[in-house]
């Protein structure tokens, strides 16, 4: 297995999708509209993680491309829960890739407390040998959901996937607190957005003065 050759087109997928998703944010900003996207990150799954997931799920090397959906991974962070569904709507109407699966871990969170909306796409990437259709996973979540998931991921790494029960219980409580925070912020969303618009206008007039 030549990993460099295998992963190169995935790296291109991540780079291209980052540009496209950040482009959505830019278009909202240029139209002085509230952007449903706060920021975007992307990564190619590290070889060690690919091997571990393939081992756990009994996936042979030749089947990785077909069965491992998140070798190319994008993450879209949104200010509010509603924005997640706006982003999903924008993805559904695009013509540069096909959505092949959606996983809603927001209305039904995972046992761990994890919340996010996952969209699995098939993305056509141009290579010197022609077009390759590769899978990529776009995880869409609020800033609060991301805060929780990042911390839980670190703990999972620390405890090699066996987080002690007491910490698991705390994590579940923290997931609920993060969800409540999202709910409360949604209730005062208009106030927050008006304040941000005033702040933006003030900054704009100061830079043009
Ligand atoms: P990493 O290190 O982030 O790459 P499925 O076969 O559909 O049941 P699969 O393929 O694991 O399961 O898909 P799923 O459940 O949509 O999860 C894919 C990714 O979502 C994970 O990738 C994580 O990034 C994230 N995720 C899912 N569940 C959790 C969770 O409980 N906590 C956190 N922090 N992240 C989660 P990897 O490969 O597991 O990890």
Automatic annotation (TrEMBL):
MF GO annotations: ATP binding; GTP binding; GTP diphosphokinase activity; kinase activity
SMART domains xrefs: RelA_SpoT
Entry EC number(s): 2.7.6.5
Residue stretches making up the RelA/SpoT domain: 42-163
Keyword Mitochondrion: no
CDD domains: NT_Rel-Spo_like (cd05399)
Keywords tagged on the record: ATP-binding, GTP-binding, Kinase, Nucleotide-binding, Transferase
The protein's annotated pathway: Purine metabolism; ppGpp biosynthesis; ppGpp from GTP: step 1/2
InterPro entries according to UniProt: GTP_Pyrophosphokinase (IPR052366), NT_sf (IPR043519), RelA_SpoT (IPR007685)
GO biological process per UniProt: guanosine tetraphosphate biosynthetic process
Protein family according to the UniProt entry: Belongs to the RelA/SpoT family.
Alphabetized PANTHER family for the sequence: GTP PYROPHOSPHOKINASE YJBM (PTHR47837)
Full protein name: GTP diphosphokinase
Species whose genome carries this gene: Pontibacillus litoralis JSM 072002
């Amino acid at each position: 297995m030549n990993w460099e050759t295998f992963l190169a087109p995935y790296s291109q997928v991540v780079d291209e999708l980052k540009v496209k998703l950040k482009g959505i944010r830019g278009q909202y900003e240029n139209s002085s509209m509230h952007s449903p996207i706060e920021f975007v990150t992307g990564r190619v799954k590290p070889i060690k993680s690919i091997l571990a997931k393939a081992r756990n799920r009994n996936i042979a090397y030749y089947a990785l491309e077909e069965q491992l959906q998140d070798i190319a991974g994008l993450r879209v962070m949104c200010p509010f829960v509603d924005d997640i569904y706006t982003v999903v709507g924008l993805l559904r109407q695009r013509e540069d890739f096909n959505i092949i699966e959606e996983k809603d871990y927001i209305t039904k969170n995972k046992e761990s407390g994890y919340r996010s909306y996952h969209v699995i796409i098939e993305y056509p990437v141009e290579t010197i040998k022609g077009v390759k259709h590769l899978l990529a996973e776009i995880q869409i979540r609020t800033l609060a959901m991301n805060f929780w998931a990042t911390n839980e991921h670190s703990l999972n790494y620390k405890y090699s996937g066996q987080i002690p029960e007491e910490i698991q219980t705390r994590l579940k409580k923290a997931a609920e607190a993060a969800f409540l925070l999202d709910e409360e912020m949604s209730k005062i969303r208009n106030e927050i957005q008006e304040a941000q618009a005033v702040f933006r206008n003030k900054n704009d007039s100061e830079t043009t003065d």
